[in-house]
């Protein structure tokens, strides 16, 4: 058994395949997800697991070069969650964000029910 880090087998395995420039979507439970990459559905009940818990777990394991979130989240709780974790996040329309999910290598569905609780992470490299 793993000692630390992400314990979910499909998510842990998918993370191990990521390379520079790959996209990872962290989504609320309502975002329509394109079926281009593996969808790791962590949602158990409404609100569980929360967006922030999943994002924090991913940020502990990934090198993130950049991030995208929806303009529509600005001024609300989602921006408050994202800004301290990913201060250089760029914002695009929710429609643009939804269309970019088709390019993601991993799509992670949380139980979050807060509107626009979605972020796209672009993987970096440690060197």
UniProtKB/TrEMBL annotation:
Signal peptide residue numbers: none
Top enzyme category: isomerase
Catalytic-site annotation from UniProt: 20
Pathway note: Carbohydrate metabolism; D-ribose degradation; D-ribose 5-phosphate from beta-D-ribopyranose: step 1/2
Binding residue positions for substrate: 28, 94, 116-118
Keyword annotations from UniProtKB, A to Z: Carbohydrate metabolism, Cytoplasm, Isomerase
Protein role: Catalyzes the interconversion of beta-pyran and beta-furan forms of D-ribose.
UniProt record similarity statement: Belongs to the RbsD / FucU family. RbsD subfamily.
Protein name: D-ribose pyranase
The species this protein was found in: Sinomonas flava
Lineage: Bacteria, Bacillati, Actinomycetota, Actinomycetes, Micrococcales
């Amino acid at each position: 058994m793993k000692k630390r880090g992400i314990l979910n087998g499909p998510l842990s395995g998918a993370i191990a395949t990521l390379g520079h420039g790959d996209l990872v979507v962290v989504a609320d439970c309502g975002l329509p997800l394109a079926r281009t990459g593996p969808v790791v559905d962590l949602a158990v009940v409404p609100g569980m697991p929360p967006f922030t818990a999943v994002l924090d777990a991913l940020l502990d394991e990934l090198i993130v070069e950049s991030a995208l979130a929806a303009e529509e989240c600005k001024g609300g709780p989602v921006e408050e969650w994202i800004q301290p974790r990913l201060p250089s996040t760029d914002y695009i329309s929710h429609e643009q964000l939804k269309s970019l999910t088709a390019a993601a290598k991993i799509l992670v569905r949380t139980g979050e029910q807060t509107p626009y609780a979605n972020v796209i992470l672009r993987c970096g490299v440690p060197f």
